[in-house]
Structures are given as C-alpha cells and as structure tokens.
Design a protein that fits this description.
By secondary structure, the protein is an alpha+beta fold. Helices cover about 40% and strands about 20% of the residues.
C-alpha cells in the first residue's frame, strides 16, 4: 500500500469520522467545471427524477438560468415528484416574489432560510446563513459544489465565473440526502411548526459501478462546527509534496495560516489561486493583507484576474481533494451552513490538479515576494485597515474563535473599545514596519 493511501485512511479514521460516516467506498464522483457543465447536469437529473428532489442554494437569481431551472423543477413536480427548494434569505434577498410564486404554483415546495434581515442590527442570528449548494435526486445522484442558481457570467462582456461542483453516484448519495432532509425539516419546523416531509420508502439506488472513496462533510452551528476546517488542517499537516488551494475568499485564521507556512518550510510546494477581481472590497483587501507573511514562508500566490473566481477546492498530494461551498474565511468557517465532498482517489485528484494548474499557467498572475514588499504605503494601509475592520466586526458580533489552538491567541481584547485600539495600533505598525516579525499576529 502506498504512503498516500495509508495517509488517506488515517484521515478517514480521524477527522472525517466526526461527520458521522467517514470515507465511503464504491462511489463515482464526476468533476463539473463551471455552470456550463453543472446546469445541464442537474436539469437532466430533474428530468429523470421519479420520487423526490432537494435543491439548496445561497443565491437563486431570476435570470435565464433561474427561469430554466424553475421550469425543470416544475416539470418534475407536475409529474408527481416531491420537490423541495431551500433558498437563503440573504443571498437571495433580491429574488422577485413573482419567481417564488411561480415555483409554488407549479407545485414546488419552497422555503426561505432566515428570511428576516435587518442591516441595522448585530444580532448573531442574522449572520448565520445557508451557504450550501446541494442537489439530491431520488437516491440516485447528488451534486455538491460552489455553483449557485445564477447565470454564469456577471455581465455580457465578462467570462463565466470560475467554479467547480461534483456529481456523486453511489452510497454517499444517501448520506447527502439525509443531510438535506434534516436541514429541510429544521427550516420547515421553524416556518410552519407542522409541515413534515412526505417521506415514503424510496427504492435503493441501482448504481453499482463505482470504485471511489469519498466523504460528505458539512459545517453547521450545532454538532459539526469544525468538520470542514479540521479535515483541511489534518490533510495540510500530513502533506508531503504539494498543496493547491483555490478559493474565492481566503482569510484563514492563525492556525490555518501557520499550518500552510509550516508545510511550505518543510519543502511542500504550496500554491494559492485567489480572487483577482474586486467583488467585495473589504474582504478582497483584507485577504491581501496576509500576503506578505505567506510569501515570506515560500508560498506561491496567484490571482485570477480573468473573471470572478468562485471556486472552493483543494488538492493535496495528488489524491486528497475537496470540492464544495466552504471558503477559507470567517463567514464559511465560523458562521454558515456549508457542504463539501472529500474524495480519496488519485485519478480524480489528478484531474482537478491538472485543471487548476492549467488555469494558474494560462490565467494566473503571480504575486512575487520582492515586488510585494515594494507596494505603496497606501495599499498597505488599505489592506491592514480592511483586515482590522473585519476582525473588529467579528469580535463585536461575538464570533471570534473560542475553541482549539487559536483560542489562546485570539480571545484577548473582547470588548469593542480595547479591540479597536489594538487593531488600529496593529494596522499602524504593519503599515510602517512591514513584515517585521515583532508585529506578526501570533
């Protein structure tokens, strides 16, 4: 048995088992790149559905894609399929009521996750979002990834969003289906306190052709708070040759950053493919505030300027791979409901790695350490001010990390006034002292 295979089995026995099932064999996992592959795949699955459909999405847009998917869901509902659609109330806050009415009129059961949103409150509940992108059809196929129900291109003159999802066939589908059922039941109870899933005995899947080991990981605010992050950390600690991460939003905590830097310093090639276009300025500049320390550790950083990067994927040592909805930032790791699939398979890992490396080679803009140190003071100020503001918001909302190794470093200055002073002092030092290690976050 190769070291890589032994390594994956250790992961199965440790972190992944915390999600309830660990790695499950005999699956077939297919990689889907961008909405151009994802939307036809889920539409075809809806047209094959005989019993039930679950669809969970953070954003549902009333555009050509949203309308196309709505029609496909309506067709399924009209022929007797039970269709459940769960939409996040913040991500889809601009969704027209006419679209919701159209879905419900066609027989699609539709719920909004946390629909009441006020921009004038710091109540913790308003920050807990349903960021999952999950589709389950019967017990035959499931889709997990980062693709929302929205047209691929942000505008007519821009290339499609860069994103990934996976199609899952095999026994792992039942695990994903159970998770979707439980989330639907919880939201349904909060809305109506009387609705129940019409859950008959669905026939077992007839699929028998898979040979891939995979696990379903989720993050919630109950029993699975750190499952996705813990799996990442364990894989990074055990990495021997290569780590490739591609994330739309990358603002890792102290422990995650240190594990990446340790990996790079022990000779592992660490490659980050990150957002190159400004979609949310505060998080974009806050993420760049961390570049200096990462570059000093030998980590390669590439930005993707061609279109909006929306991927949340990783490949480690060519065989451990994950695709899902979870970014490496406080929103995903501390607040939201997220869902990822982890695959232990060398051909799958090689395919995803090849796709990412091709993008890095053709469209990636490399951030060089020497050039980064020469950036203007103004840009340095914007980066660390943005980082400080995000940390301040995290502290005020009560979501600073209070568990694990990072607790000893990050629970100081809990009241707003002292935190503000500390952050401003820290930003000032970083602006004028650069990467002086006396002023690192440690």
């Amino acid at each position: 048995m190769s070291h890589g295979k032994r390594h994956c089995r250790r992961l199965c026995r440790t972190d992944l088992s915390a999600s309830g099932g660990g790695f499950i064999p005999c699956n077939r996992i297919s990689l889907l790149h961008n909405g151009s592959a994802y939307f036809p795949a889920i539409e075809a699955a809806f047209d094959r559905a005989q019993y039930e459909i679950y669809l969970e999405t953070y954003i549902y847009e009333d555009d050509v894609i949203g309308q196309r998917i709505a029609v496909a869901l309506g067709r399924a509902a009209q022929r007797g399929v039970t269709v459940h659609v769960l939409i996040d109330g913040y991500g889809s806050k601009d969704l027209a009521q006419s679209m919701l009415d159209s879905l419900r009129t066609s027989g699609v059961e539709t719920l909004i996750y946390r629909p009441h949103i006020s921009p004038w409150t710091f109540r913790r509940g308003r920050l807990r979002r349903m960021h999952r992108k999950v589709v389950v059809v019967d017990r035959e196929i499931a889709f997990v990834g980062g693709v929302n129900i929205i047209a691929d291109s942000a505008s007519s003159d821009m290339l499609p969003r860069y994103d990934y999802a996976v199609a899952v066939e095999g026994p792992l589908v039942d695990v994903i289906r159970l998770s979707a059922q439980r989330l639907w039941s919880a939201v349904s109870w909060r809305h109506f306190r009387k609705r129940k899933i019409r859950d008959g005995a669905l026939p077992a899947s007839a699929f028998t052709g898979g040979g891939m080991r995979a696990a379903f990981l989720m993050r919630d605010n109950f029993h699975h708070r750190r499952d996705i992050e813990a799996a990442y950390l364990q894989a990074i600690r055990e990495a021997e040759s290569e780590i490739i991460l591609a994330h739309a939003y990358f603002l890792p905590g102290l422990e995650f950053r240190h594990e990446l830097m340790r990996a790079a310093r022990r000779g592992v090639q660490v490659v980050l493919l990150l957002q190159g276009k400004i979609e949310y300025p505060l998080e974009y500049y806050a993420s760049r505030a961390l570049y200096g320390n990462l570059l000093d550790a030998g980590i390669e950083i590439y930005e993707y300027p061609t279109s909006f990067l929306h991927a949340k994927v990783a490949v480690i040592d060519g065989h451990w791979a994950t695709v899902g909805s979870s970014n490496i930032d406080p929103f995903s790791l501390l607040l939201s409901n997220e869902a990822n699939v982890v695959v232990d398979d060398e051909p799958f890992g090689a395919a995803l790695a090849q796709s990412l490396k091709k993008t890095v080679a053709t469209d990636g803009y490399r951030i060089m350490a020497d050039n980064w140190k020469q950036q203007p003071v103004g840009l340095r100020f914007i980066g660390w001010l943005s980082y400080g503001l995000l940390r301040l918001m995290q502290g005020i909302s009560g979501y600073a990390r209070t568990d694990g190794q990072a607790e000893n470093h990050e629970r100081k200055d809990n009241n707003a006034s002292s935190r503000t002073t500390t952050i401003l002092q820290f930003c000032w030092k970083r602006i004028f002292c650069g990467n002086d290690k006396r002023y690192l976050l440690k």
